[in-house]
């Protein structure tokens, strides 16, 4: 089938430790009144710096609001009803994935200019054209796609370097999954140009993490913004975002997800995942099983060693999931939308065999220690 017409909007971004000096040149053409919406901790960490740079421009901040607690449609509607939102010419979204996804769902839907100010490097929400929506009880609902990402993303590496290290740590797991899920989902297919670009770009979601990841996390713990940290931040926030945009179109199969994400979403049924573990942390664990299911044993070994080197999970115990809960997950995972477009039918037997192999690998490692 030939696609007659399609459009692709790629993310614009600035990165550096003094990058907020670009706020005026980038944002002033969209109006004057700015509403800042973000997470509580994110605003505490970044608002004063944002405000100090805005004061050097023709922009005016008319309000500072906490986005809520989760990315739900109910949260979006509460923000939409605020008089300050109606008055604002543009919105600055500040924080992590849920805060940015909430602001994107609010503003892009209304065609109101929105700018992203990521304060952690745990995911690619600052550069993607999708919001991950949740139910009010915290369980996953669905992805909500848009035609474009935010107008511009301001990636301040100084603020990210001072954020808690576990966010970049988890972001590593979510990022390398992009490459493997994209290549598996698109296997043996004739791809549209943009999908082929996305698969090719996704290679840069894994190579820099294997090369720079362990050193970047060491530097991050010291609050340093080194070359290694910047390369990992770019892979997590930018490269993954660009790949995601190329890999997801509402009129083509979704190459943007796969078995690792299906495992994560199946596990969100248990409150311990949302309460005590991060998305990328659990996806990184799921990727080990996905590579074993796909019989990519050399790649499994590479990612297993990376997980061990940086402390990402390699066992159910690491993510506080019981054997009984895993048995329940094995019944749910094959039916999840993330594996609906896969080159083969994922079965409970495949998952069981993969888990047995993973347990054996961990056992050997523990014996060697």
Describe the structure.
This protein is α/β, with parallel strands linked by helices and 369 residues long. The strands form two sheets. The protein has a six-stranded parallel beta sheet with strand order 1-8-5-4-2-3. Strands 6-7 form a two-stranded antiparallel sheet. The chain starts with 12 loop residues before the first strand and ends with a helix. Helices cover 53% and strands 12% of the residues. It has helices spanning 23-27, 40-54, 73-80, 83-87, 97-110, 157-162, 165-185, 193-202, 207-221, 227-247, 259-267, 271-276, 279-293, 297-310, 323-332, 348-368, and strands at 13-16, 33-38, 60-66, 90-95, 114-118, 130-134, 140-145, 152-156. The radius of gyration is 20 Å and the shape is globular. The protein has 16 helices and eight strands. The mean pLDDT is 94. Helix 8 (193-202) packs antiparallel against helix 10 (227-247). The protein has two domains: 13-162, Rossmann fold (3-Layer(aba) Sandwich); 165-368, Dehydroquinate synthase-like - alpha domain (Dehydroquinate synthase-like, alpha domain).
Q: How many whole angstroms does the radius of gyration measure?
A: 20 Å
Shape label: globular
Overall domain count: 2
Helix coverage percent:
40-55%
Euclidean distance between termini CA atoms = 55 Å
The total of helices stands at 16
What's the total number of strands?
Answer: 8
| Average predicted confidence as pLDDT | 94
Percent of sequence in beta strands: 5-15%
Summing up helix and strand content along with how strands pair, one would put the structural category as: alpha/beta
Largest sheet: 6 strands, parallel
Q: What's the level 1 CATH class of the largest domain?
A: Mainly Alpha
Strand order of the largest sheet: 1-8-5-4-2-3
The CATH fourth-level homologous superfamily of the largest domain: Dehydroquinate synthase-like - alpha domain
GO molecular function: glycerol dehydrogenase (NAD+) activity; metal ion binding
Binding site for glycerol: 174, 261, 279
Protein name: Glycerol dehydrogenase
Enzyme class: oxidoreductase
């Amino acid at each position: 089938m030939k696609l007659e017409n399609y459009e692709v909007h790629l993310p614009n971004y600035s990165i550096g430790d003094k990058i907020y000096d670009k706020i005026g040149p980038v944002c002033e053409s969209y109006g004057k009144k700015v509403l800042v919406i973000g997470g509580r901790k994110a605003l505490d960490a970044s608002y004063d710096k944002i405000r100090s740079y805005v004061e050097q421009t023709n922009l005016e901040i008319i309000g500072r609001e906490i986005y809520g607690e989760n990315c739900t449609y109910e949260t979006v509607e509460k923000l939409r009803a605020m008089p300050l939102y109606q008055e604002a010419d543009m919105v600055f979204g500040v924080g992590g994935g849920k805060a940015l996804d909430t602001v994107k769902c609010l503003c892009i839907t209304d065609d109101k200019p929105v700018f992203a100010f990521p304060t952690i490097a745990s995911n690619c929400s600052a550069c993607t054209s999708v919001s991950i929506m949740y139910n009010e009880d915290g369980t996953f609902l669905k992805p909500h796609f848009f035609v474009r990402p935010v107008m511009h993303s301001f990636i301040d590496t100084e603020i990210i370097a001072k954020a808690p290290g576990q966010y970049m740590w988890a972001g590593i797991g979510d990022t390398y999954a992009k490459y493997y899920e994209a290549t598996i989902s698109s296997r043996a297919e004739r791809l549209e140009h943009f999908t082929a670009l996305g698969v090719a770009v996704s290679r840069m979601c894994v190579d820099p993490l294997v090369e720079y990841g362990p050193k970047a996390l060491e530097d991050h713990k010291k609050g340093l913004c080194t070359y290694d940290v910047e390369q990992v931040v770019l892979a997590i926030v930018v490269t993954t975002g660009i790949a995601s945009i190329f890999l997801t179109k509402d009129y083509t199969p979704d190459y943007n997800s796969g078995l690792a994400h299906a495992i994560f979403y199946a596990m969100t049924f248990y409150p311990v995942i949302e309460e005590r573990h991060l998305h990328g942390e659990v996806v990184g664990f799921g990727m080990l099983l996905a590579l074993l299911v796909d019989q990519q044993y050399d790649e499994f070994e590479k990612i297993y060693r990376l997980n061990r080197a940086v402390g990402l999970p390699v066992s159910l115990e690491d993510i506080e999931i019981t054997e009984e809960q895993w048995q329940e997950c094995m019944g749910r995972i094959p039916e999840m939308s993330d594996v609906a477009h896969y080159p083969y039918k994922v079965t409970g037997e495949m998952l069981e065999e993969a888990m047995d192999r993973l347990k054996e690998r961990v056992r050997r490692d523990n014996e060697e220690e």
